[in-house]
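Input C-alpha cells:
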C-alpha cells in the first residue's frame, strides 16, 4: 500500500510540474519551464523502479 501511495505522489508531482511549467512559469522564464519539464521527465522512471523494487516473497504470492 505504501508503494502505491509513493507512486501516485511522484506521478502527481510530475503532472503538477508539467502543468505549472507550461501554464505559469513560461510567462516569466522559458528556461525555468524547460528545466521543470526535464525534472518531470526523470520522475516516472524513478517511480516505476521504486514500485517494482521490493521483496521477492511478496511478488510470488
Amino acid at each position: 500500500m505504501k508503494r502505491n501511495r509513493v507512486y501516485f505522489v511522484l506521478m502527481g508531482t510530475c503532472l503538477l510540474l508539467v502543468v505549472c511549467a507550461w501554464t505559469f512559469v513560461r510567462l516569466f522564464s522559458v528556461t525555468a519551464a524547460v528545466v521543470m519539464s526535464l525534472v518531470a521527465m526523470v520522475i516516472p522512471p524513478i517511480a516505476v523502479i521504486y514500485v517494482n523494487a521490493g521483496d521477492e516473497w511478496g511478488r510470488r504470492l
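Residues 30-52 form the longest helix (23 residues). The radius of gyration is 15 Å.
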